[in-house]
Amino acid sequence: MRVFLTGATGFIGSRVLPELLAAGHQVLGLTRSDGGARSLEAAGAEAHRGTLEDLNSLRAGAEQADAVIHTAFDHEFSNFVANCEKDRRVIGALGDVLAGSDRPLVITSGTGIGDAGPGQPALESVFNPEHPNPRIASEQAGHVLLDAGVDVRVMRLPQVHDTVKQGLITPFIDISREKGAVAYIGEGANRWPAAHVLDVAKLYALVLDGGETGARYHAVAEEGITARRIAEVVATGLGLPLVSLSPAEAVDHFGWFAMFAGLDMRASSAWTRAQLGWQPTGPGLIADLEAMDYSATSTA
Question: What is the per-residue pLDDT for 300?
Fold first, then answer.
């Protein structure tokens, strides 16, 4: 297939690209820059110039493809709600082109949207269109397209990591460095799921080639690592004190990040593994956090 890949030069998309090529697909990669175009061509893909703000450029890319994988997302988390609404518009534009065809559209969401209730891991089978997490906008947009006959498949991501970036933990490290302390809330027992970026990339390719219309897949290698354990490793890496905060103190300490810091986001991938035979093999989150260079400038 000829696949239009958004986010093709990004943290996740740049790893999805070689997986698609290895599976025999051609890749048309979205990029906004000359440098991005050169890197895509060097990797064996064709470049398509455009941006998430230019919906016509996205439609033009989708029109040239047999399938679309949408990994691009504006990760300025301090503007999270607006960026989720932008993603809604992007998904709608891509779906406009694919409506009335059998061309699949793989969109991206978060495992938290599969929240099955207190104490339970998030599940692929759970979809609550009224979920309070702003990222529900992506899945709401996908659901509208499903009703219009588009072959939508959803990839839900946990904290995707290597030794350079780790999802929400990357801004957590920046905040810790700025504040001079590494904090968690209460006992730090809330848990975050995780997966290595190369394992996540493999799953995107599997969802494209073997996924089902309307299905949701969890790219979860580790069901849940406690906030305290994450904070302990970060504190050691930064050489900063480890502190426990009350929920009220957390608002002042974390700022915009407070809305995430205390969430318990444990998530299962049992159904995903059974359906697609996905077996993650990459390093765990703690291993990558222990191996990273904390003197390096943030890439968030």
Answer: 47
Average pLDDT of the residues in 238-264:
95
Nearest to 222 by CA among 293, 169, 184, 175: 169
Pairing assessment for the beta strands 222-226 and 67-70 based on DSSP bridges: unpaired
How wide is the angle at C-alpha 152 spanned by C-alphas 146 and 156, nearest 5°? 120
Q: Which residues contact 73 (CB under 8 A, 6 or more apart)?
A: 7, 83, 87, 108
CA distance 185 to 183: 7
Answering whether pTM is above 0.90, one says: yes
The phi-psi region of residue 76 (left if phi > 0; otherwise alpha if psi is between -120 and 50; otherwise beta) is beta
Q: Look at residues 60, 89, 63 and name the one whose alpha carbon lies nearest to residue 72.
A: 89
pLDDT computed for residue 297 by the predictor = 57
Helix 13-22 / helix 34-43 crossing angle, nearest 10 deg = 30
How do beta strands 159-161 and 26-31 pair? unpaired
What is the distance between the alpha carbons of residues 109 and 280, in angstroms, rounded to a whole number?
A: 19
For 65-178, list the strands marked E by DSSP. 67-70, 104-110, 151-157, 159-161
Residues 6+ apart with CB under 8 A from 71: 5, 6, 7, 8, 10, 12, 13, 16, 108, 204
- CA distances to 8, 126, 169, 178, 199 from 194, rounded to whole Å, are 21, 19, 11, 25, 10
